[in-house]
Design goal:
Blueprint (H helix, E strand, L loop, with lengths): L15 H8 L4 H14 L5 E5 L7 E6 L6 H7 L6 H4 L7 H7 L3 E9 L6 E6 L1 H9 L7 E4 L13 E8 L9 H7 L12 E3 L2 E2 L5 E11 L3 E10 L4 E2 L2 E2 L3 E5 L1 E5 H7 L2 H4 L12 E6 L21 H22 L3 E2 L3 H18 L19 E3 L2 E4 L4 E7 L6 E4 L6 E3 L6 E6 L9 E9 L4 E8 L6 E3 L2 E5 L4 E6 L9 E5 L4 E4 L7 E5 L3 E9 L2 E13 L17 E4 L2 E8 L9 E6 L2 E7 L3 H7 L3 H20 L5 H16 L2
Parallel strand pairs: 1-7, 13-15, 18-24, 26-32, 34-36
Antiparallel strand pairs: 1-2, 2-6, 3-4, 3-6, 4-5, 7-8, 9-10, 10-15, 11-12, 13-14, 16-34, 17-19, 19-22, 20-23, 21-22, 23-24, 25-27, 27-30, 28-31, 29-30, 31-32, 33-34, 35-36
Helix pairs in contact: 2-5, 3-5, 11-13, 13-14
Length: 653
């Protein structure tokens, strides 16, 4: 008698080559860029890449002074399919980039010191051992007895992560000094270009259409640093966008769109629509947001979104940063052409017949009184031996401040308590160039803040002004600062060669730069007798605006539509992105301003149709976006019913 089988067994598991295929998918330079990104996500102000040989490096050491790798971060590193970047609130763990870099290394050594731990965590492994640990689910021993300074490039007096990569011989070319300086910047956001050093030299920056920096101190928000740019092309790395607008405290935390989505509805409506434009990229760092960030978290705690700080930040966006964007990037609101103007007038008449006339009220910004809050200024600075700088702690009149500079080598302070501190570095202080340290100040014995100090034996040679956007008829007066004592003259050049004329091009000061055409100009100053003394700066020259051939329509004559009890102002926006939404809107005090993206392909096609079709299309866009703005929290069914209700009322006329 034969018994038939009713089941059979299979062995579960994961194939070794599946893991190896995952970590080998990133090219060497991309894997290194991942490490650099993680360093900035962990709050590091700068990243140092040190090669033991400029042309054929055997060791590449990546050093940052961010928050360090936590125990959870190390556990995530040894879990295939898990990244602390994605699975929890932490970023900057170096897990993701370290996994990819394994494929290009004989082995790597990871050393890290976190704020809450006194011991340096350390482990060494290669790709094969890492895969073995995962497949066999082995326990991995992490050393805690490695003394600080055991590696020659261990930073002192600060948290840090150091990754020493022993490079495979066949990949040394991709890690050479010249290759990294020329190409690594193309895989990073431009705001990092002057904060990454390869053997002490900054990376070649990416080409961009324009950029500017805004730095200011605010009573409530502390230090604010915004670096915004418009890329020539939106770049990505292995499917992940490099060019985006991000928001952070000290280092990036989250992308701006995620931040805006977390805002309560009434605050979300106050965000100027330009900050949703994909062509506006960069990083806005707000020191006052740091209390709502946990370690190297990739998101802020939800309490921030209802705080006085976030309300004040939105005021900064509207009254300071948005006007600067308009000026620097020529994103002025343009006027509506005659045909569109006439059609919108008809829509204005229709909506006002149905919902009543528009009551025009002048928009005024109410000044708000901000209570003083605790912060330290400057919060990021470079210092050299023999140099003095004054730090200020700002808060309430009754606050007391205690200063701690014990971690900074050779530092001398004028006083340990008080609102100001004069700090200097001894001439015999021991450190390596670009080492980073933290000055701590504590308020009333409790809450503390940090200032970040980068030590160099001499100030970096720099062109002043360092960057900016100028008109074609401007004359720039340039100078260099921090030139070595033996440098008596410099050779100044521009690139492209026909972009500008330089007068007095062998001096250290009073260099006259006369732009000859619009676009990016790179100015380089170099000591003809010492090629290591060199610096450069980028300037962006605006083309003159074309002469207007149509009559300008005053702002107060723009069509004013009415839907329910809300006034709708319609205008057009040039300089947008064809891939973005056809219409963006902003709601405030029963008034919605809509900007039509005139370069959107669908809108361009609509302009080719009859006037009646254009009016129906634009009216549908306005109604749909109006309902989504006003009834955002009402649910999909209510929103659809409201759109139908408004259309029915308008179609009856």
């Amino acid at each position: 008698m034969t018994t038939s089988k009713t089941s059979f067994f299979v062995t579960a598991g994961i194939e070794r080559h599946a893991i190896s295929r995952e970590i080998e998918k990133l090219p060497a330079l991309h894997a290194l860029a991942e490490l650099v990104d993680n360093s900035f996500d962990a709050g590091s102000l700068n990243v140092n890449i040190i090669l033991d040989n400029a042309k054929h490096p055997n060791h590449v050491v990546v050093v940052d002074t961010g928050s360090g790798i936590s125990k959870d971060g190390i556990e995530a590193f040894f879990r295939y399919g898990r990244s602390l970047w994605l699975s929890s609130k932490h970023k900057g763990s170096n897990g993701k980039g370290s996994k990819y870099i394994l494929w290009h290394a004989k082995q790597i050594t990871v050393r890290s010191l976190s704020l809450k731990e006194k011991a340096v965590k350390c482990f060494t492994l290669n790709a094969d051992r890492w895969i073995d640990h995962i497949l066999q689910q082995q326990q991995v021993e992490i050393q805690l007895d490695s003394p600080l300074g055991a590696h020659p490039h261990d930073p002192r007096g600060t948290t840090f992560t150091l990754i020493d990569i022993e490079i495979k011989a066949e990949r040394q070319h991709f890690f050479s000094e010249a290759f990294l300086l020329e190409n690594l910047g193309d895989l990073l956001s431009p705001q990092y270009a002057d904060r990454v050093y390869v053997n002490g030299q900054p990376l070649k920056p990416r080409d961009i259409l324009g950029g500017f920096t805004d730095m200011r101190s605010d009573p409530l928000l502390g230090e604010i640093r915004a670096y915004l740019y418009r890329p020539v092309h939106l770049a990505s790395r292995e499917g992940t966008r490099i060019d985006t607008l991000r928001l952070g405290s000290i280092g990036p935390v989250t992308d701006f769109l995620t931040f805006a989505r977390e805002l309560p509805l009434e605050l979300r409506k106050k965000v100027p629509s330009v900050f949703f434009d994909r062509s506006i990229c960069g990083l806005i760092e707000v020191e006052g947001f740091n209390p709502w960030r946990e370690g190297a978290s990739k998101e802020f705690r939800e309490e921030l979104y209802r705080s006085d700080e976030v309300r004040h930040f939105l005021l900064y966006l509207e009254t300071i940063l948005w006007p600067m964007i308009r000026k620097e990037f020529h994103l002025e609101v343009s006027k509506i052409e005659d045909r569109e103007q006439n059609n919108l007038r008809e829509l204005q008449d229709l909506t006002q017949r149905v919902f009543g006339p528009v009551a025009i009220r002048e928009k005024k910004l109410r000044p708000i009184t901000i209570p003083p809050e605790f912060h330290v200024s400057p919060w990021s600075v470079q210092l050299c031996p023999g140099e003095k700088i004054t730090f200020r702690a700002k808060g309430r009149q009754t606050d007391t401040f205690d200063w701690d500079w014990s971690d900074i080598p050779g530092a001398r302070g004028s006083n340990k308590t008080g609102n100001t501190l004069e700090l200097s570095i001894d001439n015999n202080a021991t450190f390596q160039d670009n080492d980073q340290f933290k000055l701590r100040v504590k308020k009333n014995g409790g809450t503390s803040r940090e200032a970040h100090i980068r030590l160099n034996h001499q100030k970096d040679l720099a062109i002043k002004p360092a960057s900016g956007t100028y008109d074609l008829d401007d004359t720039l007066i340039l100078r260099v600062e921090n030139a070595p004592a033996k440098t008596h003259n410099l050779h100044w050049t521009v690139s492209p060669a026909d972009a500008a004329v330089i007068e007095n091009n062998k001096a250290l000061t009073d260099i006259r730069l006369l732009p000859a055409k619009a676009g990016k100009i790179t100015v380089t100053a170099k000591d003809p007798k010492n090629s290591s003394v060199v610096t450069s700066a980028d300037f962006y020259i605006r083309a003159p605006e074309p002469v207007k051939t149509v009559t300008e329509i005053p702002d107060n004559s723009l069509p004013l539509l009415r839907i329910e009890d809300t006034t709708i102002v319609v205008d057009t926006m040039h300089g947008g992105d064809p891939n973005e939404s056809i219409m963006n809107g902003q709601l405030e005090n029963k008034c919605v301003t809509f900007w039509i993206n005139v370069v959107h392909p669908q809108y361009i096609e609509t302009l080719k149709t009859a006037d009646s079709a254009w009016k129906i299309y634009v009216l549908m866009q306005i109604i749909t976006r109006y309902v989504f703005l006003v009834y955002d929290d009402s649910g999909a069914e209510t929103i659809q019913m409201k759109i139908g209700e408004i259309l029915a009322k308008l179609s009856s006329r």
